[in-house]
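Changelog note: in this version the structure field was regenerated for every chain. One regenerated record is shown below for reference.
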Amino acid sequence: MASNLSLLAGPDALRLLRERGLRGDDVDVVPGASGGPKWLVLAGLDRALFAGLFQGRTRPLHLIGSSIGSWRMACVAQADPVAALRRFEAAYIDQRYPAKPPPSLVSETSARILDALLGENGEEQILHHPWARLHVVTALCRGPVGVEHPHVQMLGLALCAVSNLVSRRTLGIHMQRVVFHTAGDTSPFSGLRDLPSVHLPLTKENLRPALLASGSIPLVLSGVRIPGARPGVYRDGGVLDYHLDLDFGPGEGLVLYPHFYPYVVPGWFDKSLPWRRARPANFRRALLIAPSAELVARLPGGKIPDRVDFERMSDSERIRAWNQVVAESERMGDELLELIAKGRIAEHVRPL
């Protein structure tokens, strides 16, 4: 058995993997979930996957992310995804804050991380990539959720949480999903009906604000206003689409999903609701690649990084721990490439 990876596939993906193995040409969609520092456990896997799996590709590859997932996908949509991922990783790990930083400071730091991620020409490369089609998920806030005052915003989030207990659909009262993308009329997500959704083109004017908004965690970062979009405050796309339990559109190709967990939680408010998990129909074509329990046990503290690390560790301790996580994550990438090269990936896949 694979020692560093958990490989889980829906029935359609499992059939395709048994027939052909994992080939870049068979992939239609790559999702990137919300989760803050959790993404670091995927850093080595991302670099291994995106260094060469899609070389020579000509048909569109749809990359969709919310929050930190949209930033990872913005790296993949650049000409040199590995270099972009390394810039992102270094800047992300090096962020530092005083105790209880104000949202304005966290937003300023996030903007600098985004500058490092995009480098000199990242925006142009994303907007004009020959085959990568980036989709950035944001949430346009209504009512108290759109207010910056923390007590009012907290009241709005509490109302969201209570109504979400009844149904995820009630979140549409408080927020609207807005997806900024480079796919034009080819987007496989244009038919989303689970929540109120709007689709807008990514442009030079809105690309940075959209990415900042997608990662603007309520109460932690300031909300963002996006030029050319509907007026209002945009926040973290993960509030609505935490792990992207979406209809991934028509087609028979794979949904290749590097993820930090072996399960998918639909929305931010579903994290504490064990009965609220992904709809199987959405993941029939999905191959989910997650760290194994054995790998997680080897991480500092025996856990995947999270935002609480900023509070319970000094900067030096956290940076050291996060670099250890990235080093361990490279085992995932090495193991996956070996399974692909030997044509043995289907032997290690379990049903999702």
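Spot check on this record: Residues 5-351 form one domain. Residues 177 and 197 are 5 Å apart (CA to CA).
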